[in-house]
Each structure stands twice: as structure tokens, then as C-alpha cells.
Amino acid sequence: MSKNPPSPADGYRGRFAPSPTGPLHAGSLVAALGSWLDARKNGGKWLLRMEDLDTPRCVPGAVQVIQSQLLACGLFWDEEPSHQSSRQEGYHNALVELAKQKLLYPCTCSRQMIANTLAFLHIQTPRNQEMVYPGTCRPRAADMHDCHQWDAKVAWRIALPKDCHIQFEDGILGPQEQDLWREVGDFVLRRSDGVFTYQLAVVVDDALQGITHIVRGADLLSNTARQIFLQRQLGYITPHYKHLPLVLDEHGEKLSKQTLAMQIQTRNPEDVLMELRKAGQHLGLQDLPDGDTTTVAEWLLAATQAWHL
Ligand code: GLU
Ligand code: ZN
Fold this sequence. Notes:
By secondary structure, the chain is an alpha/beta fold. It is built from 9 helices and 10 strands. The protein has 2 domains: 8-87 and 205-306, 3-Layer(aba) Sandwich (Rossmann fold); 89-198, Glutamyl-tRNA Synthetase, domain 3.
């Protein structure tokens, strides 16, 4: 993108950013509906971005399925949908910028090596949490002045400053904080297979697309501090954040394509309304039209008026 990104003065710009690894399920519909309602309530724009960088996980045809599901649900987007796979240049430029600030270093550790080092240091990783990178390759940071090593099969990590305590206000959950140094460690921005990571790509896209409000599932809350840190290093504004309550299955686990969550049913308006009603209920929306003759458009209008998160 060569033209100037939209600025906050252009007003509310929100987005829904699914990874096309399969059709939308009840959990992703909640994120889509919540972000759409928040944008519409605020008279804003709602953009659709396909986060398709991790190509082995992307499923052919999923982009079209997701788009037709959204359309069936009346969740129309503004502007052309974007695809991260065609925006590599922006991510590369951001990486160069961080390299100039001497904030990057190459890392050759495998997951097993990291696990061994953590065990040696008696650092335990709680279940469902990522390993805190112990900084093994950090001494190399000093060697790294330009980017001609970038073709090598190494991962690139950010060197966090020691005091890296990020605080932010979540519009739903209230004040949040994370000590990146202790809770995350130097994280990867480009993997050894050359793929830019979600943390980098999402920050670059949110900035270049002028996103002012991010409304997404609470499963992403633990990423937000990393993203705010990157925004600050890259001189981007930090958008407003709202993290929506997660949809859990009967075992209390997050719904995901990995747990084979059922795709939402959108074959006819009755199915669509049922899915929307479930998602709306999950978002705490009350007193919405429940009659058989309600149309999707009527329901969405009432939901927009009722939106209060
Ligand atoms: N692509 C991410 C996901 O599907 C969401 C990214 C975001 O909303 O920040 O989980
Ligand atoms: Zn390493």
C-alpha cells in the first residue's frame, strides 16, 4: 500500500479477521457479530481480513465459505476484503524498521531445545500456555545490523527491553496488564520457514488499514500486550480493544476448528436467525424480536440498537 493509511480522524474502523482454516462456527460467529454490531452502532466501517499467512493450516475454499456465511447472516463488509498472503511487503518493511532499531535477533532453537532449557532452569509452563522463551540466542543481537541473513533458515525474535510491562484498558474487561519479559519472553516475528507471524502481521494490517477499534474473542486477550508493544515500537496508534466472552463447549473448552466445532447453519433464513439469536444471547442482547416472521435485517437492526458491550 503506497497511499497514506486512513487516520483516526476518518472515524471508527473495525474489522473481523478470521483465519480461513474452515467454515465459521458458533464461536467465530460471535466475534463476527460482536465486531459488526459495535461498528454499526458507532456508525463505523467494518472490514473483512483473511488471515491466511499460515498456508499449511488454510483450507482451500474456506475464504468463499466464510464470505457466503457472513453474507447469509446479513453481516456485509465495507471495502474490498484483504488477504494477508498478498501483503508481505508491509510485514517485511516493519521487520526492517525493527531491525534498524536493533530489536531483532536470529534464533535457531527448536521447541525441544527451548523446553530443555526451561527444564534446566526449573521453569514450568502451565497447561495451555506458551513457553516463555529463555533468551538463549539473544547474545547474537549485537551481530545483526542488516537483513542479508534473512534468507537463512532462522527465526527472527524481538529483543524485549527489560521493563516491558504493558497496561491497557479493555472496553469490556476493564484494566489489563502483562509483564512481557516474564510472561512471554522474546517472541517470534518471522518463523524459520519464512512465514511472518500473526503478532507482526496483525499489527501491521491494523495500522495500514487504519483500524481504530478491535472487537474479538477473549481467546486473543493474551496477545494484546505483545501487539501494543509492537505498535509502540513501530510508531503506530493503539486501537481501542474489546474482548468478547468466549463460547465454550460442554467440556469447558474453547470452540475451535481443532475441536471440530460444528459449522453454523445458513441454508435458509430460519437457520440463520437461529444462529444469530444464539450468538446474540451469548453477547447478552435482550428483548430482540423472536417471532417467526422476523427477517434477518430486522433482527440485525434491533440487535444494533440493543448493543451495549
Ligand atoms: N485470525 C485470528 C483468529 O482467527 C484473529 C485475529 C484478530 O482478531 O486479531 O483467531
Ligand atoms: Zn534461539
